[in-house]
Automatic annotation (TrEMBL):
Organism: Paenibacillus odorifer
Origin: domain of life: Bacteria
PANTHER family: 23S RRNA 5-HYDROXYCYTIDINE C2501 SYNTHASE, PEPTIDASE U32 FAMILY
Entries under Pfam families matching the protein: Peptidase_U32
Protein name: Peptidase U32
Length: 641
């Protein structure tokens, strides 16, 4: 089955959570169905869902007899323990012959290459593809279709599709995240349940209050977005050149999914038959009456602002397919001496012949911090691509000044987490002119690796590349990266095994308040458009910083120069007591995330880490006398097995 409009293929892609649902949905007015198998996909939380090996084979036979396609999701991050299982599963899938796999982890691409398998690959939305260079890089790696970033508007999709010639897939209906794909680590740090490994506990659906400038605002569910609804905008979707129109809903029930597939399929057919006389609203009332939340077109036509947030019909943390509460506000666990000892014992068990003295790196937010870092002769100074307000981005003059001060220290220039075509244009100009006094570039996405690999500046990978196993690390090393940051979601067992097997130099973020969520959505807009309902000061950060508050704590939110928001830890990550054991694993660099500290606070933290690395701290205190600046210390995801 295939649909065409002016010679362009249009595919309606529907989800199925079980074999019984698949058998009904595949008969509906869709062109293709996607589902997960028994392992390694992003919907592993609900028992009885996903298909067995036998059901996959039968589903493929049913679909192909109907001249329809099947895509199988192998779209979570793999641990080292998952690699052998992944090999067996991919061998099975190679024999079963699905029409494509939907993939997040670069390890899948590496395994398919190593095993010489013939499996077409589509990049998952969790790859967060958002620029032309990323599409080119994935094409070079054998990917034939890209699922676009959720934040991509239709005009950008049209531009990228036309320039690249790549098939694009775009979400048109269903549950959306408020955070950029694969840039949410909240669930893993609070519960040990990784959102990138199919086990998200949905802290975005908690009941928060927004605080800023001493006032409380009635935001209620400020991260809880509405469901995507593009039924009335099928002409614009088709005009944009998108190939596949994707419905979300692998956890939804059979009747609901069949209704959606039939409504959208019937509308597409009507538009193809009579585009001038097309009625956009035929099934609007039925879809609205059967909605799970209110509707939005999300980012399809530009930044939606607060209109994208679900106030009236929110499930308050409920996983709406079942009506059960998924999770309730939970505090980040406090660092404990008992847990530190357990971690030390486990890490000491790992044999590692490549023990070296680790270097110390510090990411800053302004020139005052940067000068102090160089004054302390820190090994590596990281200048961010995303600078938190009210500080301003580092200028070329700033970089030159720091170059004159750096001595034996190295300076690395960071790139923004999300890079638009404008960002590439700007960095092309900066990096393509006179040689800057920097020692490398911190890359944040696959496209930046492709673009800047031949500039003469060494490239190191930032933490949001989500490297979780030695196979993805090897792929990035083959692409030219000289160092990689370990995934911030690593649990203890996964970290120990990964570090012992990875040959690429690794960096670990050991202190500070890294971003738990990184989003296009502007939380500060709540304070600009709403009237306050109470007065209350922030507990740990200045009142001019927005915080999201529950009864379990306050998470500060910083906005960068691009208008994007970074929700940070309430507590501070602190691995100071574990540095010796991590060095024993061969970790080559320890990073302090210093952006939110004052100069004097950051100075004290750096000195403590320098003393620990050099073995010159003789104090008996587990933390060398270092006291938290914010709500306490936490071990983040590393405290979980």
């Amino acid at each position: 089955m295939a649909r065409y409009f002016n010679g362009r293929e249009i595919e309606l892609l529907a989800p199925a959570g079980t074999f019984e649902i698949f058998k009904e949905v595949i008969q509906a007015r869709c062109d293709a169905v996607y589902f997960g198998g028994p392992v390694l996909n992003m919907r592993m939380m609900r028992k009885g869902y996903n298909l067995s090996h036998e059901e996959i084979v039968e589903a493929l036979d049913i679909a192909h007899r109907l001249d329809k396609k099947v895509y199988i999701t192998v779209n979570n991050l793999f641990s080292e323990e998952d690699v052998e299982e992944a090999k067996e599963y991919l061998r099975f899938l190679d024999g079963a012959r699905p029409d494509a796999l939907i993939v997040q982890d670069m390890a899948v691409l590496e395994l398919i290459r190593e095993m010489e398998l013939n499996l077409p690959i589509h990049s998952s939305v969790m790859m967060n593809v958002h620029n032309l260079e990323m599409i080119y890089a994935l094409r070079d790696l054998g990917v034939s279709r890209v699922v676009t970033s959720r934040e991509m508007d239709l005009q950008t999709a049209k531009l990228l599709g036309q320039r690249s010639g790549m098939e694009l897939e775009y979400f048109i209906h269903g549950d959306m995240c408020s955070v950029h794909g694969a840039n949410c680590y909240f669930s893993s740090h609070v519960f040990g349940m990784s959102s990138n490994r199919g086990k998200c506990m949905k802290p975005c659906r908690w009941d928060y209050r927004v605080k800023k400038d001493g006032y409380v605002y009635p935001a209620e569910y400020p991260l809880a977005v509405k469901d995507m609804f593009m039924y009335e905008h099928l002409p614009e979707l088709i005009e944009s050149g998108i190939t596949s129109f994707k419905i979300e809903g692998r956890m939804r029930d059979k009747e609901f999914m069949v209704m959606l597939a039939n409504s959208y399929g019937e509308a597409i057919d009507r538009y193809i038959d009579d585009p001038i006389g097309f009625d956009r609203t035929v099934d609007t009332k039925e879809l609205h009456n059967n909605r799970k939340r209110d509707f939005s077109t999300a980012y399809a036509f530009g930044k939606p602002g607060l209109t994208n947030i679900n106030r009236r019909y929110e499930g308050t943390g409920k996983f709406y397919s079942t009506g059960k509460v998924f999770s309730t506000p939970t505090a980040e666990r406090e660092l404990s001496e008992k847990r530190v000892e357990q971690l030390r014992e486990r890490l000491a068990e790992v044999e590692q012949p490549k023990k070296t003295k680790a270097k110390l790196a510090v990411r800053v937010n302004n020139m005052e911090q940067a000068r102090m870092v160089l004054e302390l002769s820190v090994d590596s100074l990281y200048l961010p691509g995303d600078v938190f307000e009210p500080d301003k981005p580092f200028t070329k003059r700033d970089i030159k000044e720091l170059g004159e001060l750096k001595g034996d220290s190295k300076i690395y220039l960071g790139l923004p987490r999300m890079m638009t075509e404008l960002h590439f244009d700007q960095y092309d100009q900066l990096l393509g002119g006179e040689r800057l006094p920097i020692d490398g570039i911190i890359v944040t996405n696959l496209g930046a690796i492709r673009r800047y690999n031949n500039t003469g500046y060494p490239l190191i990978g930032d933490s949001n590349l989500n490297v979780y196993n030695h196979l993805s690390a090897q792929l990035y090393a083959n692409l030219g990266l000289t160092q990689l940051s370990v995934s911030p979601e690593m649990t203890l067992e996964h970290f120990a095994t990964f570090a012992s097997r990875c040959k690429t130099p690794l960096e670990v973020v050991v202190h500070g308040t890294p971003a738990l969520m990184y989003m296009e959505h502007d939380l500060y807009e709540n304070t600009e458009l709403m009237e306050p309902i109470a007065e209350e000061d922030n507990q740990y950060v200045h009142n001019n910083v927005l915080v999201l508050k529950t009864d379990q704590g306050e998470n500060p939110v910083y906005r960068d120069q691009h208008g994007r928001c970074h929700l940070l830890f309430a507590k501070e990550l602190c691995y100071l007591p574990l540095l010796s054991e991590m060095s024993g694993l061969g970790i080559s660099s320890f990073r302090i995330e210093g952006a939110t500290y004052s100069v004097e606070q950051l100075r004290e933290i750096i000195v403590s880490y320098q003393q620990a690395i050099n073995g010159s701290d003789s104090r008996d205190d587990m933390l060398g006398g270092l006291k938290p600046v914010y709500a306490g210390y936490t071990l983040g995801s590393l405290q979980f097995n």
